[in-house]
Specification:
The chain has about 160 residues and is mostly helical. It contains 6 helices and no strands.
């Protein structure tokens, strides 16, 4: 995971624990303000239902971009390998969007960056599966697609630390 994201996650965990301590009566508001000041979190976050809503809209938006390109390119009667290339290009664009959202825009646990990251993994896996299906991978191709999906999801988790919860 990127060091700045790991640090932001640690600060978020401390602030969440401090809020629990205050609710339990273990510390007072002054102590909470002091600890919160020492562990300021400069990431933009949402929680609960709003995060889920942004995730769903992010997935719909990313899939909508692919659908729009599909409609435009459908008239060209592209072969399946070209469609695999379109999926891989979409995955690349979504990786760039996720990097932008997590980097300069400083989103974390916001929903949108999680959607773009996971749709990128899905698009890349689908592109690989389509290409291997066209080439004729058979059972070996299925194993390669499964391995590719696992490696892509692992790389996304390692690079971005995208939580599933």
């Amino acid at each position: 995971m990127r060091p700045e994201i790991a640090e932001a996650d640690r600060r978020f965990a401390v602030r969440r624990a401090v809020a629990s301590w205050q609710r339990a009566g273990a510390i007072g508001p002054e102590a909470r303000r002091e600890i919160d000041g020492l562990h300021a979190d400069h990431r933009r976050r949402t929680g609960g239902w709003f995060r889920l809503l942004l995730f769903v809209f992010g997935v719909i938006g990313a899939q909508g971009v692919f659908g729009l390109f599909s409609l435009v390119l459908a008239a060209a009667s592209l072969p399946p390998l070209a469609w695999a290339g379109v999926l891989l290009a979409l995955a690349g664009a979504l990786v760039a969007a996720t990097e932008l959202l997590l980097g300069p825009l400083r989103l974390r646990r916001f929903g949108v960056e999680e959607a773009t990251g996971w749709v990128a993994v899905g698009a890349a896996t689908s592109g690989i599966a389509l290409a291997l299906g066209e080439i004729g991978g058979g059972l070996g191709g299925t194993l390669v697609v499964g391995l590719a999906a696992a490696l892509l999801a692992g790389a996304a988790a390692w690079r971005w630390g995208l939580p599933l919860t």
